[in-house]
Amino acid sequence: MAEYLFLVPLFPLIGFLINGLFIGRLPRPVVSAVACTTVGLSLIVAIMLFFDLRALPADARLIQQTLFTWISADIFHVNVAFMLDPLSAVMILVVSGVGFLIHVYSIGYMAHDKCFGRFFAYMNLFTFSMLTLVLADNFLLMFVGWEGVGLCSYLLIGFWYEKQSASDAGKKAFIVNRIGDFGFLVGMFIIFWQVGSLDFITVSQNAPMVFAAGGSLITIACLCLFLGATGKSAQIPLYVWLPDAMEGPTPVSALIHAATMVTAGVYMIARTNVLYMMAPDALMVVAVIGAATALFAATIGLAQNDIKRVLAYSTVSQLGYMFLACGVAAFSAGIFHLMTHAFFKALLFLGAGSVIHAMSDKQDMRDMGGLRKHLPITFVTMFIATLTISGIPGMSGFFSKDEILWKSFSSGHGHVALWVIGFVTAGLTAFYMFRLVYLTFYGEGRMDAETKKHIHESPRSMTVPLMVLAVLSVIGGLVGMPHIFGVTNYFEEWLHPVMAGHNQEAATHALASAGADTSMEWLLMLASVALVLTAIYLAWYFYRKNIAAAGSLADKLSGVKTTLVNKYYVDEFYGAVIVRPLVYFSLFLWKIFDVVIIDGFLNGVASLWHDISNALRYSQSGRVRSYVTVFTIGVIVVVAYFVFGSN
Amino acid sequence: MVPISAYLILAAVLFGIGTVGVLISRNVIVMFMAIELMLNAANMVLIAFSRALSIADGHVIVFLVLTVAAAEAAVGLALIVMIYRNRETINIDRFSLLKW
Amino acid sequence: MNLDTVMFIVSAVVAVFGATMMIAQRNPVASVLYLILSLVAQAVCYVQLSALFLGAILVVVYAGAIMVLFVFVIMLLNLRGGEDLGRPSPIVSRFTKYVVSILLTLEIVFIIKGAPIKAMTTGLIAKIPDDFGSVEQVARLMFTDYLYPFELTGVLLLIALVGAVVVAKSRKPGDPDETPMEPDVEVKTDKAVN
């Protein structure tokens, strides 16, 4: 089956070429059929490959396919080659599966848009890039996919480019990502310099011999790679592009900024777990930043009024959880949360899209309310997703988040403080998500009459994906249930060979103290459930029962509220500290260096000659007598030279 | 006995006077005559040297120079006549159209 | 101080005098006459140098024909010598011209006094053949060794003759050789004199 591996990224590429080369000339049904079918075919091949992989013995689960040699220059060799191991199998299933559902959803959502063909072309291109990213067997090909998804993110965020804010957001995303990419590149350089290859398998095997464990070089390399991850996956300090990215169409937010692209950073760290395990300082940085981002973004999400912004900050927060998991060496927990998050976050975004669609493209939650009656399917599915993200027991989100919290407490790389931050964030998550639900779906409708008339449930093409994702959100957790429930954690076992030796270390450490700590685990689990229920009660109190109380509380804490609403003024801070000096520097370079010095020099040289010739031309006076005078002087000089000089 | 160099110096002086005449005069005809004077100075040198070296070739050369001087004078004067017809002036400084 | 020296000095002085007066005259006819004077003096010098034939030719051709031609032209153009020849040149440029000319002269004198020429010119009046400089001798040379240049010079004279005629032909309107230029074209003379 190895021969079919390349089909997984190839199908969406074909879809992009067909839709892209004939933009505007194909009828809409053809466009949507091409786009969805290609992703669907990728999904089918991915499923088939998954079963093939499963049929192999656990420690030999690796399918590789080399397409061709890309670069071969003395010591530097890179192939275009794909690699399927348990980790990338999970990723391609998530990407193609959720991607397929979102493509189908988009048929209904973008039905009124005039750039239908361009949208699906970009979406297919994105899917191709993302699949290349996760299937690559070396850093450089992964970077190609990395840049590709960055490009598609720019194109799709700025899809409605006539709108100034949309094109600005696209540029912001691209530029901030480039800063991260710089880190990624430096990390790659260090790795190649030391190991001599960019192949994942070669690097994983040789790294322990080449780098000093815990040494500065490996730590720097890992931190640089992590910088790239913070850019792509929106962590502190490079998260600022993600909330602005909500300018793009909602399916884009669902696919790229919830389910797939932003998870590329997490995937990258999981893929290079061998390197990170050799640099515990880097791991600590990852964990701290992950936890801090989770808390930070959750606090901002409390005060946002745009439904998509709340979800955007929620995404940043949940990504923080994933990095926290990786940072405490619980890589499989991080990937597990990646998968469940893809389900419920995509569902939340698509549901929000359904709400926006019904509200005639209005997104402010303060103008919503009472949509429960009008949008039943949307309501039910979003409610399920909200339960999941809050961590209600039984749902997938509960299992994945809980595992992260447990590992951050108990792992050898973990710390109580990290657990506390995660714990508090879980409560905040529940609170703001239920705030969203109550403001949107419950209570009296606060919208104006005109909008109210147009409220309608979304068409089947939009509601069916919602339902599928809801089912996945519920049952998706069953593959990763913790041991204390008495069942095997299939997910962890599946990913075991990829994280060989490391998760095991964390697991054995946990199991060794299993006796005493099983009760600890139960205790922590119950504590987080209790917190969540309290948070839901508070949300109900403030946004359902006694809305006035929310207003008065907000007034009392108005300083806090303003800070949160303005996102801690981080954008303004970046603008003043980084952007403005750069702009001034560029202006200086332009106005002074380029115009005055360089242009002045060049023009000066030219005008120098001009002035010289201007002066010299007066010698052509047309007067014979001065010509003769000069002539005579010349004769004197020449004769003098020959007679007196050259003797 | 008069040394040959005396004649040479005489020729040099005449040449110098001729140069002064060319440079100073504004009347184009006088300028022409000064040029003829310079040519004659050269002739004198040739005669002197052919005498000194007992070679008669110098005389032949002088003969040819004389001829050429005649021809040149003829054509030059014809040109001057033409220009005078057009410009009503013989001031050489007025013939300065071909300038910057 | 014998006859030779006296003759030389006299003829030299007259020649230089004539040349100097020539360039200082206002009236062009006077200039011509002084030049003729100078030429005659130079012819005397030629004779002293045993260039009998050439001395005669100088007077006959140069003073007798070329200078007469000059006079013809001056008469034709009806020049009186009182023409407005503009302002005199600035002192500086006149001074420069004098200096340049004097420099040139001095340079030549310096060369004359230099060693090579001295070597060539001592032994004045060496034994020369009797017919040195006579018509016969010059003619012999001219028609044997220098025949080719001689014939070419004849052609040159013909060309000059034809050229002069063509150039100075008076042209009526409608004549195909009419000069295309307007006779009263403005000539900028703001910085003309120097």
Q: Can you give keywords for this protein?
A:
heterotrimer; A: about 650 residues; mainly alpha; two-stranded antiparallel sheet; 27 helices; 2 strands; about 5% strand; C: about 190 residues; 7 helices
Explain what this protein looks like in three dimensions.
The complex is a heterotrimer of chains A (647), B (100) and C (194). Chain A is mainly alpha-helical. Helices cover 74% and strands 3% of the residues of chain A. In chain A, helix 3 (86-109) runs parallel beside helix 15 and helix 8 packs parallel to helix 13 (280-302). The model of chain C has no long low-confidence stretch (mean pLDDT 82).
In short:
The complex is a heterotrimer of chains A (647), B (100) and C (194). Chain B contains three helices and no strands.
Order of helices and strands of chain A: HHEEHHHHHHHHHHHHHHHHHHHHHHHHH
Helix and strand composition category of chain B? mainly alpha
Please tally the β strands of chain B and state the result. Answer: 0
Main interface: chain pair and counts: B-C, 78 and 97 residues
Instruction: Profile the largest sheet of chain A.
Output: 2 strands, antiparallel
Oligomerization: heterotrimer
Overall morphology of chain A: globular
**Roughly how many Å is the radius of gyration of chain A?**
31 Å
Per DSSP, the total helix count of chain B is 3
Structural class of chain A: mainly alpha
Side by side, the strands of the main sheet of chain A go 1-2
Task: Give the SSE layout.
The complex is a heterotrimer of chains A (647), B (100) and C (194).
Chain A: H1 7-21, H2 28-55, E1 63-73, E2 76-84, H3 86-109, H4 116-135, H5 139-157, H6 164-195, H7 200-210, H8 216-232, H9 241-244, H10 250-259, H11 264-271, H12 273-277, H13 280-302, H14 307-327, H15 331-358, H16 376-390, H17 396-410, H18 416-441, H19 449-453, H20 460-475, H21 490-495, H22 503-512, H23 514-545, H24 547-556, H25 558-565, H26 570-616, H27 624-645
Helix pairs in contact in A: 1-2, 1-4, 2-3, 2-4, 3-4, 3-10, 3-15, 3-20, 4-5, 5-6, 6-8, 8-11, 8-13, 10-15, 11-15, 13-14, 13-18, 14-15, 14-17, 14-18, 15-16, 15-17, 15-20, 16-18, 16-20, 17-18, 18-23, 23-24, 24-25
Chain B: H1 4-24, H2 28-53, H3 57-87
Helix pairs in contact in B: 1-2, 2-3
Chain C: H1 3-23, H2 28-48, H3 52-76, H4 91-113, H5 115-121, H6 135-144, H7 147-168
